[in-house]
Amino acid sequence: MALGDSYATTAELKSYLRITDTAEDTLLSDSLSTASRLIEHHCDRQFNKATSASARVFYADAPCTVVVDDFHTTTDLVIKHSSGDDGTYDITLTTADYQLLPLNGIVSGESGWPYYRIELQGFYVSAAVRPQIQVTAQWGWTAVPAAIKRATVQMAEEIYKLKGAPFGVAGVDQFGPIRIRDNQRVTAMLAPYRRSPVLVA
Q1: 123-145 pLDDT, tens per residue?
Q2: Which residues contact 43 (CB under 8 A, 6 or more apart)?
Q3: Where are the domains of the chain?
Q4: In contact, 2 and 72? CB cutoff 8 Å
Q5: Most exposed among 114, 134, 184, 195, judged by the fewest C-beta atoms under 10 Å?
Q6: Residue 84 · residue 38 · CB < 8 Å
Q7: Coil vs helix vs strand at 35
Q8: Average pLDDT of each block of 10 consecutive residues along the chain (201 residues)?
């Protein structure tokens, strides 16, 4: 899947909803796209992948730590530093200058995670006005996690069913309008993939 694609197919959503005709394929596809974008916004990351490298710039989070967008391979990876704080990335780091995390692509026992943090080794960056680090990489995940695909289908189902609930109102009882609530099962599935987890006191 390329960047911007939905995280599940129309066929998968139709199977989940037990729809066998093609009359509402466009609406189903739009629901999947909307669900995918909502998941990206919720998680602050995207789960498809680019197959060609492009450059992005980042501020360092600490003198030796740079949190970056997800990238799924070291093929075509180039990391550069701007020594003059002038937007020119004039120093190319070697593999001895950094360590990519997570190690072994494993987070909380789950494999298949991309790299998203760079720990500098014996090489430090100072505070700067402009982003200090430029990373050229193939962005995204090698494969969409199963939980993300499942969450997409369930969220798309909810969006699809909104067609009969103007403004998200599913019905009315003695307390007023009943609105479509956040899907707690989806929220639970997405929790491990949020870049900035919600802290609970």
Answers
A1: 888 888 999 999 999 999 999 99
A2: 190, 193, 194, 195
A3: 10-45+144-193, 54-137
A4: no
A5: 184
A6: no
A7: helix
A8: 85 95 92 91 93 96 95 97 92 96 96 97 87 96 96 91 61 41 81 73 36
